[in-house]
Amino acid sequence: MGVSKLDVFYRRLLLTKLFIRGWGRPEDLKRLFEFRKIIGNREKCQNMVSRDYPVYIDKIEEETDCKILEGHFVSPMAHYVPDLMPIESVIARFQFIVPKEWNSKYRPVCIHLAGTGDHYYWRRRTLMARPMIKEACMASLLLENPYYGCRKPKDQVRSSLKNVSDLFVMGGALVLESAALLHWLEREGYGPLGMTGISMGGHMASLAVTNWPKPLPLIPCLSWSTASGVFTTGVLSKSINWRELEKQYYTQTVYEEEIVHMLEYCGTDSFKMGRDFVKHFPNSVDNLTNFDLASRTLNLDISESLCMKSAQCHNTDKSSISATSEGLVLQGVSKLESLSQTLSTKESRDGSSMNHSDQFSEEKSKEEKRRSTLQKESLMFMKGVMDECTHVANFSVPVDPSLIIVVQAKEDAYIPRTGVRSLQEIWPGCEIRYLEGGHISAYLFKQGLFRQAIYDAFERFLHKYAY
């Protein structure tokens, strides 16, 4: 299956660069990897967000078909890694769109997490929340992402995260913030509860549900099992400031000497499967190529001589064959010595006559090889850190995978599925629905199918766990 041309074209319209400041401080990455080990285990993180975690409503607006509540709370992430979150992101903010009247004894609520570039609430409210009230009398809670909207750092340009580590801070914060909101909704008597999101929002919703101790409908749209492909092989990888990442990886040995050893994910699509090969691949190929070329050069005349002599002595007796063989060996040695002397003389002559242009070409070639090796190592390191913090196989399996409906675009150029473990393999029992087209066309024109998947997942929950 090919990739969408619209996806490729749309990416070219984005002029801003991601991760302009690099990987983030090494000590921050170390702390985030340790933190991931905790939130990646449902049992370990059960008490990180209390059932009575305080959530505050700031404003209530009455609309013709719904009520819109706006609220806030302190991100639980700030309590555990307080100095990693920018000050603007510490206060989590949300909008809650509720029907004026419910049409059954249930009061279903779906939490929507924001996709890349989805600042504030307008997009999710218009395309998802309001239609869901009309179609299914279902409420929607829209959580503002850290680094987005009113939680965006002042020195950040639009949606362009400055550091790779910022994405991991965002993910960890959304996992804990989602838990706080789920607890609050339960206290307020809402249910059943579920989570969804489109693109990055779908992936963040997936990570959040892995930590919830109860069955929960999950509908990740246009997302997959890991973000590593997004930033290494997807079209969004073209927006990354690779020069800065490569420079930091090369100049700060802590990334290769310490941080690499903290990466624990080791699935079949792990970067560890190919890291050593990639690291040594260029030198190995060069050595093999040179060796093969030299071997063929040295053996060429000897092989021809042996073949001709063998043909001439085909009908001779054993003693003749023995003598001839001995002669051939001597001839071969003689040829080899002669060729060796010729090569030595040529090398000496070439060495003495090598001009500055040849030296420059050789240095340029070496520099290109070093550059290529550094690019490959930086790319594999990106895959490693992304898998460590975003691969769903590094987190607990949701309590009931049968309540998961994944909606994917067949020609998605933003979310590559090639070379990545399938969600059906990681979450046995989940359903995957494929749409025609790519990422952008699905986002623009298939919102109705996203909503239908939400309704189906909630209906499935009621069928299994009606209360």
Description:
With 467 residues, the chain is of the alpha/beta class. The protein has one domain (5-273, 392-465): Alpha/Beta hydrolase fold, catalytic domain (Rossmann fold, 3-Layer(aba) Sandwich), CATH 3.40.50. The chain is 51% helix and 12% strand. Strands 1-2-3-5-4-6-7 form a 7-stranded mixed beta sheet, with helices on both faces. Strands 8-9 form a two-stranded parallel ribbon. Helix 2 runs parallel beside helix 5. The radius of gyration is 31 Å and the shape is globular. The model is unreliable at 274-340 (pLDDT under 50). Residues 341-373 are annotated as: Disordered. This is Abhydrolase domain containing 18. It comes from Sarcophilus harrisii (Tasmanian devil). Residues 341-358 have a biased composition (Polar residues).
Short description:
The chain has 467 residues and is α/β, with parallel strands linked by helices. The chain is 51% helix and 12% strand.
List keywords for this structure.
Abhydrolase domain containing 18, alpha/beta, 15 helices, 7-stranded mixed β-sheet, two-stranded parallel ribbon, Rossmann fold, ABHD18, 467 residues, 51% helix, AB_hydrolase_fold
CATH class: Alpha Beta
Reported for the largest beta sheet, the result is: 7 strands, mixed
Strand order of the largest sheet: 1-2-3-5-4-6-7
CATH architectural group: 3-Layer(aba) Sandwich
Helix content: 40-55%
The rough form would be described as: globular
- The Rg value, from CA coordinates, equals 31 Å
Tell me the name of the CATH homologous superfamily: Alpha/Beta hydrolase fold, catalytic domain
* Percent in strands: 5-15%
* Element-by-element helix/strand order: HHEEHEEHEHEHEHHHHHHEHEHH
Number of β-strand runs: 9
Low-confidence stretches: 274-340
Distance N to C terminus: 43 Å
Q: Please name the CATH topology.
A: Rossmann fold
Mean pLDDT: 83
Please identify the structural class as seen in this structure.
alpha/beta
Organism: Sarcophilus harrisii (Tasmanian devil)
Region (Disordered): 341-373
Biased composition (Basic and acidic residues): 359-371
Pfam families: ABHD18
